[in-house]
Amino acid sequence: KLHSDLDKGVGTVKYTLSGDGAGTVFTIDETTGDIHAIRSLDREEKPFYTLRAQAVDVDTKKPLEPESEFIIKVQDINDNEPKFLDGPYVASVPEMSPVGAYVLQVKATDADDPTYGNSARVVYSILQGQPYFSIDPKTGVIRTALPNMDREVKEQYQVLIQAKDMGGQLGGLAGTTTVNITLTDVNDNPPRFPKSIFHLKVPETSHVGSAIGRIRAVDPDFGKNAEIEYNIVPGDGGNLFDITTDEYTQEGIIKLKKPLDFETKKAYTFKVEASNLHLDHRFHSVGPFKDTATVKINVLDMDEPPVFSKPMYTMEVYEDTPVGTIIGAVTAQDLDAGSSSVRYFIDWKNDVDSYFTIDATEGTIATNQLLDRESTAQYNFSIIASKVSNPLLTSKVNVIINVLDVNEFPPEISVPYETSVCENAKPGQVIQTITAADKDLSPAGQRFSFKLSSEASNKPNFTVHDYRNNTAGIETRRNGYSRRQQELYFLPVVIEDSSYPVQSSTNTLTIRVCRCDSDGTIQSCNVEAIFLPVGLSTGALIAILLCIVILLAIVVLYVALRRQKKKDTLMTSKEDIRDNVIHYDDEGGGEEDTQAFDIGALRNPKVIEDNKIRRDIKPDTLRFPRHRPRAEDNTDIRDFINQRLQENDVDPSAPPYDSLATYAYEGNGSVAESLSSIDSLTTEADQDYDYLSDWGPRFKILADMFGEEESYNPDKVT
Question: Which InterPro entries match (predicted)?
């Protein structure tokens, strides 16, 4: 209730209300100042409201007192029950845990005012889950209440927790939640075989490495605590078998390490041990965490294919062996109780297998065709043996036949040699080292011998020196050789091998006589080579010739352009050129023709008159009319040229301005005089080229060329 001291109760004062909830939650009587709540209040929604009130004159609307502020506080009542905001809960605890082992802590929240009464005071209790678990009434911590709870007995527990306010007193509000507790596994159980003896039956034809049976030990634990390792205890027959663990089923897989044979041994007995991989030291007192069982394996007799006496057969035969010769045999037996006969045949795969045949009953292998080691040195094929009683049971073996060499080919020079000898060679000089090769398969230590043929041993030119190491040297036997006398020598060399029977061949070496310098370096070996640089390859010589041809083409093109330029300068216009082409059909007499025109005026510019007008620049004077009388076809050339000269002298604007007087001027002559052979007094035949020998070694080849031409002059041959 609001009241102003200025309010006399006569209705002149009006009360107003503003602030939180004014008009929506709270209202005021304007005359009496009574404040009323117009709807229900919830402390958990808004615990207090701040309002402002004022007394106003009804007539003037002016405040009679300053505005005053006051707070309305909502008083709490116990209208909210405790709530588990994180529920339901999931927890786990290891099995076999001691009493009081921590499991989980739960917490309930009460929205009431904790500062007013016991409305927010919560107490915890277990409604369901006893006697296995307990809870602290104040903290809500859940712990185990029984010892040695076994997961293998019961794994899942559901506990119902209650939280009650008002300190748990009568009339308090309560809330509940569920806690699902799982006992986690520990390795507290050893593996156990369900039986002490396992019987297995295995065919003797089982392949090595194949699984022949499974055994299993049972472990009630879970996960890694149930992982089992199996081992074969050393003893009777254990070395023929192996055991591994299937990681998914934890079974022991027995595998075969070695082949079985019913005829050798029909049964095997051994022990298998199963143990845990991950042990828990807390439970060692329970006993050993392993178990043992006996495995008995009975070998079953099976109809097996024949067995060869060897895993592979190797035979040898000479390449000249006649067809039908027996070179070896293979043997296979049926090892089963009822022994059966065996048949043999070749596993045909290609034409190579047709070189041999096999006796179906005895297994002897013979040649079917003539063999050639140089064509095929080794044959590799398969022999199949089958049982007569059951042809489907077969076995296979590889046979390798090596063809032995027979000395049937003579040795020959290994590579073609290009042998040369200098003209200035000395006796005993080695000019070539040769080697030999034999198509036959040479045995270790075979030697080749070299010698001259009988018809060449008497000639005094060359000899063969056998070095006794399968090589030989070609040596000179005379002092100097002449290309002019003989350019090529043919030397027959006889090569023999050391096998039986002895084979030999005659090989002809071609020896070319070459020109060499004083150090023995070859300069040329034929007439064509004289013009080629010594030591250059064919590609380099071709490149040099191409460069020379290109340079000659450039020079010819340059000279042609220079000549064309001279003609264009002398012919001042296209009309002049056309006139010359049309009317100038007389060659003239050349340089010897001095009657046609005065050539001196063209050669010497000094004869030009000093008072003539300059024609090196274009004058500004007007052009004179040019009269070009058409020259007759038979007009004398001298009159024609004089007429044209007079025209150009009179016309100062006629181009080119000064070319006529100076263009063909050769000068006063050359110090070297003319290079032309027109005035030569002697012919090539009269020349004496002996002076070239005096110019040094660079002109020696040139001197020899002209010297040889004189020496080979057919007119001088007698």
Answer: Cadherin, Cadherin-like_dom, Cadherin-like_sf, Cadherin_CS, Cadherin_Y-type_LIR, Catenin-bd_sf
Distance separating alpha carbons of residues 86 and 17, to the nearest angstrom: 44
Q: pLDDT per residue over 284-296, tens digit each?
A: 767 778 899 999 9
How many angstroms separate the CA atoms of 80 and 116, rounded?
13
Q: pLDDT (tens digit, 9 = 90+) per residue, 664-673? A: 444 455 555 5
Average pLDDT of span 151-163:
91
Distance CA 612, CA 650 (A): 9
pTM over the 0.70 mark = no
Task: Return the CATH superfamily for domain 412-524.
Answer: Cadherins (2.60.40.60)
Mean of all residue pLDDT scores within the chain: 80
Contact 291, 217 (CB under 8 A): yes
| Residue 447 confidence (pLDDT) above 50 | yes
The CA distance from 584 to 13, in Å, is 147
State how far the Cα of 264 lies from the Cα of 346, in Å rounded to an integer: 31
Question: Do 268 and 256 meet the contact criterion of CB atoms below 8 Å apart?
Answer: no
Q: Could you give the CA distance from residue 472 to residue 417 in angstroms, rounded to a whole number?
A: 13
**Every domain range in the chain assigned CATH 2.60.40.60:** 13-73, 83-184, 197-300, 307-404, 412-524
Sequence-ordered list of residues with C-beta below 8 angstroms from that of 309, at least 6 positions apart, any chain = 330, 331, 332, 333
Is 535 buried (19+), middle (13-18) or exposed (0-12) by CB count in 10 A?
A: exposed
**By percentage, how much of the chain surpasses pLDDT 90?**
28
Contact status, residue 122 vs residue 108, Cβ threshold 8 Å: yes
Fold of 83-184: Immunoglobulin-like (2.60.40)
Half-sphere exposure of 679 (CA within 13 A, CB side): 4
